[in-house]
Write a structure and sequence with these properties.
Strand content: 15-25%
CATH class: Alpha Beta
Shape: globular
CATH architecture: 5-stranded Propeller
Low-confidence stretches: none
Radius of gyration: 18 Å
Structural class: alpha/beta
Number of helices: 11
CATH superfamily: L-arginine/glycine Amidinotransferase, Chain A
CATH topology: L-arginine/glycine Amidinotransferase, Chain A
Oligomer: single chain
Largest sheet: 3 strands, mixed
Strand order of the largest sheet: 3-4-5
Number of domains: 1
Helix content: 25-40%
């Protein structure tokens, strides 16, 4: 996780992120966002989750609180860094975070895709892709931030089957990142099926997600707009938890919560200020799939 000291809503990314809410009071946002990440990290630690918390004291990286977009880690000791669409987001890449991973975990290689940026080929990490580690599928909504060529390269390197598809809201605005639309857990998958307009592709995706007996929890467009799909299953010493925001938790109905809690405890993190930047809990978490040293 990255704790921002000068958080603000990034105007450069607002053009294709309909989840953002702009604000003029930057100082107030910064203090609140700092406190929200501090509390979120403490809550996760209280549930037995190891959190590596980095500070961002810079003023040129308004979205640094969302590190999952610029790097990801993978079993076998692999790390990937990604090509970002917005120039301000390219400045988020931090060698010190990669060095920390190498120090504390077994890292065999780092594959850097950022060289695709001059060609306009973007793939914004586990925002652009939702990875099914059991079935080895990389689900990806097509957008300016998810290029099919970059997706194919990643999938070849990391042994995933790419499944790209179109999704948009009821006004026709495309979904900017796949991880606001869907979340894949061990025993369940949450997905906003009504936003996948092609019925055949929708059925194919749902069938594939249910392949290992997962329960499909269908999310409405309203729930997607409240970040109900932007959650991440984590492993604690006492079992699995699903980290999601208070906004997302309140958006779920009793039946959906009960379905999730059959296999994972719901842990709600209160980050309403950060959500104004167009991302929620899943975006703030860069998961570690590496073996500790």
């Amino acid at each position: 996780m990255v704790r921002p000291h000068h958080f603000t809503v990034n105007t450069e990314t607002a053009a294709d992120n309909s989840f953002q809410t702009l604000s003029d009071n930057r100082e107030d946002l910064a203090a609140k966002a700092y406190d929200e990440i501090t509390a979120a990290a403490e809550t996760l630690r209280s549930h037995g989750i190891t959190v590596h918390l980095f500070e961002d004291e810079g003023t040129l990286t308004p979205d640094s609180v969302f590190p999952n977009n610029w790097f990801s880690t993978h079993a076998g000791g692999h790390v990937a860094t990604y090509p970002m669409k917005a120039e301000s987001r390219r400045r988020e890449r931090r060698p010190d975070i990669i060095e920390m991973l190498k120090t504390h975990y077994r890292v065999q290689d780092v594959i850097d895709y950022s060289g695709l940026e001059p060609d306009g080929l973007f793939l914004e990490g586990t925002g652009a892709m939702v990875l099914d580690h059991m079935d080895r599928v990389a689900y990806a909504v097509r957008s300016d931030r998810t290029d099919p060529i970059a997706l194919e390269r990643f999938s070849t390197h990391f042994n995933f089957e790419p499944m790209a598809f179109e999704a948009c809201d009821s006004t026709g605005i495309p979904i900017y990142h796949t991880n606001v639309l869907m979340c894949i857990g061990t025993d369940f998958a949450m997905i906003g099926t009504e936003m996948i307009k092609d019925p055949g592709r929708r059925d194919e995706l749902v069938g594939r997600l249910a392949r290992f007996g997962r329960r499909i929890i269908d999310l409405s467009e309203t729930q997607i707009g409240q970040f109900a799909g932007n959650a991440l299953e984590l492993q604690s010493p006492d079992g699995r938890i699903l980290a999601l925001s208070t906004t997302a938790f309140n958006a779920l109905d009793a039946g959906q919560r009960a379905a999730i809690e059959e296999s994972a405890r719901l842990v709600a993190l209160d980050i309403p200020t950060i959500e104004r930047a167009g991302g929620s809990v899943r975006c703030t978490l860069a998961g570690i799939h590496l073996t500790p040293r």
